[in-house]
Amino acid sequence: MRQLELLHSVASLFDFKVINDKDGNEYVLLSKNHINHIDETIEDKTAFEAFENHEHFSANIKKSDFDNACYIGEMLGKALLLSLKQTFPNKSFIVFSDVHYDEIIIRFHQKWNNEPFYYDVYTDYGNESKLFAFEYVYAAIA
Questions:
Q1: Average pLDDT, whole number, for the chain?
Q2: Edge-to-edge strands of the sheet including 54-58?
Q3: How many Cα atoms occupy the beta-carbon half-sphere of 43 within 13 Å?
Q4: Which pTM value belongs to this model?
């Protein structure tokens, strides 16, 4: 990936839009997403958002650089969560940074009632990858 393309991909992680389904549920999507409206009911809101809101950063990560790649994935995940929190303070989110030797995947979704997270954060992914999860929970103060 060329450097300018890489920077554009990173910058696009912080640009969002909101769309609704026919039942009035609000979905937060990356602005570059081609979906602008939903004419049906989404049964698995978590899977929908997590699939639509992910970015792959290709890399050939050497074993000696894996810790550095994990640091980059962790920082991108934290920055994305902070941006989501500031942009949508009344919504709850979880952000995942999935680091492998061939790529880093950043994805997010809202925390939908009665739906599990996209990834099982308690699974051991072994030495070949590492999963970071960051969450923001909106709590209304009455």
A1: 90
A2: 54-58, 103-110, 93-100, 129-136
A3: 0
A4: 0.90
